[in-house]
Structures are given as C-alpha cells and as structure tokens.
Specification:
This protein is of the alpha+beta class. The chain has seven helices and 14 strands. The strands form four sheets. A four-stranded antiparallel beta sheet has the order 7-14-9-12. A four-stranded antiparallel beta sheet has the order 8-13-10-11, with no helix packed on it. A three-stranded antiparallel beta sheet has the order 4-1-6. β10 and β11 form a beta hairpin. The mean pLDDT is 89.
Length: 229
C-alpha cells in the first residue's frame, strides 16, 4: 500500500508481519497502546514494507500527509520525527530500556543507528574484535560457540556489551538466522553513554556478570580506556 497515513494505537493489540523471500509470513513485532506504525513509508514517501493486523479489537488514530505537512513539519524536522518514532518508541517497548529516563533514551537514540543484515551473515565472530553494541530490532539471530548453536536471539535481545566492558573480544559468533535489522552503537559511544548514567551502568554490570557467571569488574590486567581502540 501507499504510505499515505501514519497510525497511533489508542487501544488494543496488533502484530507486524513481513513476507520472506520463500513466501513464508513472519511476525516481527507486537504493538500496543501508545505505539506508532506506518511511519517509515510515510516519512520516506514509499510503499509499505510490512503488513499490520489486529490481534484483538483495536482503536487507531491516524493522520494524513497534508495534515502532517501543515501541522507537524513546520515545527519538527523529518529527521527528528524519525528519531523519535523509530528509535525512542522501540526503546520504550523493550525490557532493557523501558525504564530508562527519557534523556538517556534520547542520548542513546541520537548516537545509535540502524543496520540491516542478510540471512546467514555474521554480526560478530568468536574471539575477534567487536566494534559495536547491538540491540535486535527485527528478525532472529543465532548465538554460536565452536560452531554449535547455544542460544537464539529475538526482538529486544542485545549483545556486545561484555567485550566492551572487558576491553576484550567477542565470546561468541552471532549469525543472522533470518534477515535482520539491529540498532547499533559503536564501542566508544556506548562506553561514554554508560559513564553518564550510573543506574544504567550498574544494570549493564549486573547483566554482564550474570551472563559471564562471575563479576565483570574489576578487570584483570586490562585497561579500560574510552578513547583507545
């Protein structure tokens, strides 16, 4: 369909679907009160790339392109709207960040960027330098060690923080099980983001320690320098 409207969920629950190359229909996200959708095609003037269906009786608010261009664009740039709708709305939905303060969400969103990955491509490689922190925005990923799958990642899951906090290498290979899109932040920006909010820093320290099975800090014989690659 043409991207001539953007929608806001007032009540109800909806599901975002996409069609894979093999013809299979895949669910990629769930939407509830306060979520917005249809904004990508709307803002870019392109065709819809996803289908949305209601899972229960729902009420939606919508506005058309003329209204948007008359009331919104004179006050807010397209870039700022895309930042708010796509990145911050996503951060509001996932368990990792839904309780972050709004300034922290804005800081993360401003420094993070989207990247798409084809099915079968490697995002990180075991024992190799990892440049980014990743949050899975869409699709499924496979976590492998010694070429054996040990876990699967779905929307909202994240990885890469341990190698950054320990100033080390990736401890697993992450492969795209399906076409995937991630929200990425480079190592330097990620570490600087953490040092500006001690509550988020503590959360990541706890998560990383739990994943490792031992405290991520103090570092043993390593230097953690925000400005050194």
């Amino acid at each position: 369909d043409a991207g001539d409207k953007v929608f806001l969920v007032a009540t109800g629950h909806l599901e975002v679907m996409r069609k894979l190359d093999n013809g299979r229909i895949e669910s990629v996200a769930k939407l509830a009160c306060g979520d917005m959708f249809g904004e990508i095609a709307f803002l870019r003037g392109t065709r819809r790339t996803r289908s949305v269906r209601s899972l229960k009786a729902s009420v939606l608010l919508s506005f058309s392109r003329p209204v948007f261009e008359q009331l919104v664009l004179p006050k807010i740039s397209r870039e700022a709207i895309e930042l708010t709708i796509q990145k911050i709305a996503f951060l509001h939905r996932i368990p990792l960040s839904r309780n972050w303060a709004l300034p922290a969400m804005h800081a993360f969103a401003e420094n993070a960027f989207f990247q798409d990955f084809e099915k079968g491509s490697a995002l990180t490689s075991e024992n190799q330098y990892n440049e980014f922190f990743y949050i899975l925005y869409e699709g499924e990923l496979s976590v492998q060690r010694r070429k054996q799958e040990i876990a699967a990642l779905t929307i909202g899951d994240f990885f890469g923080e341990i190698s950054h906090l320990q100033n080390g290498v990736a401890n697993a290979t992450i492969l795209a099980r399906t076409p995937a899109r991630c929200l990425l932040m480079n190592k330097r920006d990620f570490l600087q983001f953490l040092v500006k909010d001690f509550t988020i820093s503590i959360t990541f320290e706890e998560i990383s320690s739990k994943r490792l099975g031992y405290p991520v800090f103090p570092l043993k014989g390593k230097s953690l320098d925000l400005f050194r690659e």
